[in-house]
Amino acid sequence: MTRASWAAFLALLIFTMGTSIITPLLPLYQERFDLSNGEATLLFATYTGAVVPTMLIMGNVSDSVGRKRVLLPAIAIMTAASLVLGLAGGVPELFIGRALQGVAIGSFLGVGSAFVVDGARPDGKAIAAGFAGVGFRVGFGLGPGIAGLVAEYAANPLRTPWLGHAALMLVAAAAVLVAPETIASRVRWRARISVGVPTGQMAGFATFLAPAAFLLSFMDGTVLSVVPLYMVDRLGVENIALVGLVGFLVLAAGGVAPLFGGRVDPRRAVMVGVVLGAASTLLIVAAAGAGTVAFVLVAAALIGLTNGVILVGATVICGISVPIEERGKLMSALYMCAYAGTLPTVALGYLSEAIGLTAALGVFSACAFVLAAFVVIVGGRTYRTVTPYVEVTPGTRDAPA
């Protein structure tokens, strides 16, 4: 990793903290504003409605006009979102803040990940892609981890975490400003949406990478939105720092994935990850019968670890299989599929009002197994090999074989 890649990585880390601060605060918001389970999960997932279309557009924009021209406005929007959420006095402001976060993260995440990879040396692209994949997960994990501690032990639990993050965004802005632009030749951007999937691999992307990313986010989203309500309502947890710890584990545990996931064939890493992740969801359901939150903590750590492995494999595939001018679009497409996986958590929230939180989480576990089977059986057969992109240097095109 070069200094430019580390600067981009630092910005990615700080930026992503803001999106998940809300996790340990959901039970507090539910109590203060009398939200139902469905409304609480809807608040969590609101940003997804803005993330998906923004990612599709901004990956293409950054490939045309440059990374920094997209990243700096995204930082400004995320800062504004944290301020809105920190100063919110009612439910409408909460939803506005989450929508702003969706626009910000949709603009930043795929492009920011590509920025980390762009700045790496040619022989370090795969390593940089792996760090980019888990870097934002560590940032996401720090968000609820720190927010849970602040909410439990500091004054103004619904305000201080957000305002603290707004201040940290100044560091993220500085990191992007000092990093060199990586898109040297810029072209006039035309309004178009495209997905940078390598020629001949669309079927593999649609049946392998896309559903794996969807499952990853479905598991994450459920642990970050439905499980906090489950912990407080069904398991009797009163310490908000413990709720934040669950959010930290499910997100930050993936940070150790490059230590071993990067050494495994990326395709195999994705398949192993989806299977082990789905199996770990059973512990969450078992926690109600056992009457202990320990099962949830273990499940969160295991899901986080396996999701990190999935993400390392998927981002390595995206990082090495297309040229630099296509990388932002492909990364954005991957993350778009991932964020779409948070949408079913809203259905789980409303379903829990009818059948209970424990039963709803049982449905979640069953769905996770179905998706994992699809990735391994259908996607594994369709996407049999990863084909790295090879740069063609001047003078080699007509070289003899």
What would your notes on this structure say?
Helix 5 runs antiparallel to helix 6, helix 5 packs antiparallel against helix 12 and helix 11 runs antiparallel to helix 12. The longest helix is centred in the middle third of the chain and has 32 residues. The C terminus is likely disordered. Helices cover 75% and strands 0% of the residues. It contains 14 helices and no strands. It is globular, with a radius of gyration of 20 Å. It has a single domain, classed as MFS general substrate transporter like domains (Growth Hormone, Chain: A), CATH 1.20.1250.20. The protein has 401 residues and is mainly α.
Question: Keywords for this structure?
Answer:
14 helices; mainly alpha
Brief digest:
This protein is mainly alpha-helical.
What structural category arises from helix and sheet content? Answer: mainly alpha
Please give the largest β-sheet: none
Write the CATH architecture name: Up-down Bundle
Radius of gyration: 20 Å
What is the highest CATH level, the class?
Mainly Alpha
Question: Separation of termini?
Answer: 34 Å
Helix content: over 70%
Shape: globular
Strand % is under 5%
SSE series = HHHHHHHHHHHHHH
CATH superfamily: MFS general substrate transporter like domains
Unreliable segments of 5+ consecutive residues:
396-401
Number of strands: 0
Average pLDDT works out at: 85
For this structure, the CATH topology is Growth Hormone, Chain: A
Number of separate helices: 14
* Number of spatially distinct domains: 1
